[in-house]
Amino acid sequence: MNEPCEDPYDLAVIGGGINGVGIAADAAGRGLKVYLCEQHDLASHTSSASSKLIHGGLRYLEHREFRLVREALAEREVLLAKAPHIIKPLRFILPHRPHLRPAWMIRFGLFCYDHLGRRRTLPGSRALRLGADSPLRPDMTRGFEYADCWVDDARLVVLNAMAARERGARLNTRTRCLSAQVRDGLWYLELQRVDGSRSVVRARALVNACGPWVADFLRDGLQRQPRHGVRLVQGSHIVVPRLYPGEQAYILQNEDRRIVFVIPWLERFSLIGTTDREYHGDPEQVRISEQETEYLLDVVNRHFRQPVERDDILHSFSGVRPLLDDESGDPSAVTRDYFLELHGAADQAPLLSVFGGKLTTYRRLAESALELLKPWLRDMGPRWTAGAPLPGGEEMSDPQRLAAQLLDQAPWLPTDLARRWAVSYGSRSWCLLGSATGLGDLGEHFGANLYAREVDYLRREEWAQTAEDILWRRSKLGLFLGPEQHAGLEAYLQREPLKMR
């Protein structure tokens, strides 16, 4: 290892998914000196391949995960207040299929769902009669309705990374931690950038938040044997043209007692997922299988009047959930709760490894992680994240009102662009607009109202480097741009180098 030339950090975090950036942001806000590295882009794996939900997990009640559900339900409204631009309430309709679950069981589950967590703004559940205007098949005449929230998952990760940086943390993407070892009471991390250059940083405490690679990093990077097993469970989604009008989502019960969501997405599309299957390959290479595709199509076609064919699929994505192995025989029954494994005696540099977790509970997971590390980091401040807005959530509560304000100040902005900026960047939209007085000031146009000014903002402020970063994780415009437009954006990125933070 090369010798480091800078003072040690209080905390080093390996992994730029939701848990890693959540811990980094919390720690930085408590006054700790924090370093984070991610081997690829932020949210490039599990954290951007979710069902895009902030939810309590209604089906977890069947597995008696009451602690997890209670914590997740309480977090819905905390996160809604922290990031009202990227999180919004969403109503779910659950068609009643009596041969799968009797009505009394669903009513009881929804009663628990309404009362396990504190609700301030989200409405309670209710029974429904499904009429002729329902997009569901005619034999489905009864249902139930309840509330959860939708989230732009990748942007949730990026905003937490920004929050960490704005409180003094240092974050390096496309930087792999090759190994870490303890010397003289400190962790020494050997890092390698994508260009092959290497460096070393030191830290008093280390967090392994490598997601699907958490056990691999313990074995290969730290030369330690995990005390607990990791269960890799693949979840896949498909995207099709919008199946029905309205902003409600559907939660469909299947014969195997699993559920599938159908969620309105990006105004024009329906997002369908997810699956649960064991995965044994490289998490970086995960792809939807033929069996998963058929499974999702079959569930949807058992419920909706409008048939969905394979040719209707416009896009698909898959992720691998790194769950704690609780020896359940059914992948869908493996706990979604998180587990924090702490190594280190009082006189040793501590190591904390993160297993499992979900988007909804990332903030509480971060608080729990720092509570465990407190004996080694005694100078940290108190908890603070519950009431602090994420970047863009400052002084705003209604993205529609913000879009109207943008259009009032800049009437030349396309309406769709103002709305997209409002729900993506919140109050940071004013930084994008800057002193522009016309579309020409926004620079080169790549299609779908994506201009060079936004691209450069994403490169400068949000660690974006490639067209994939911009189109699929930062903006979700990949579904709207064709191959030539995609190539045009890539050419711009190569032609116009921008100095990164």
UniProtKB/TrEMBL annotation:
Q: Which GO terms describe its molecular function?
A: glycerol-3-phosphate dehydrogenase (quinone) activity
Organism listed in the record: Pseudomonas flexibilis
* Cofactor(s) for this UniProt protein: FAD
Q: InterPro entries in the record, alphabetically?
A: DAO_C, DAO_C_sf, FAD-dep_OxRdtase, FAD/NAD-bd_sf, G3P_DH_FAD-dep
Name a biological process GO annotation: glycerol-3-phosphate catabolic process
The entry's keywords: FAD, Flavoprotein, Oxidoreductase
Q: Report the NCBIfam families cross-referenced here.
A: PRK12266.1 (NF008899), PRK13369.1 (NF009906)
List the Pfam families hit by this protein, alphabetically: DAO, DAO_C
Cite the PROSITE patterns for this sequence: FAD_G3PDH_1 (PS00977), FAD_G3PDH_2 (PS00978)
Q: Does the keyword Flavoprotein apply?
A: yes
Q: What is this protein called?
A: Glycerol-3-phosphate dehydrogenase
Family, per entry: Belongs to the FAD-dependent glycerol-3-phosphate dehydrogenase family.
Reactions catalysed, semicolon-separated, are: a quinone + sn-glycerol 3-phosphate = dihydroxyacetone phosphate + a quinol
Q: What is its EC number?
A: 1.1.5.3
Recorded GO CC terms:
glycerol-3-phosphate dehydrogenase (FAD) complex
Alpha-glycerophosphate oxidase C-terminal domain residues are: 385-481
The domain of life for this entry's organism is Bacteria
Q: Where is the FAD dependent oxidoreductase domain?
A: 10-331
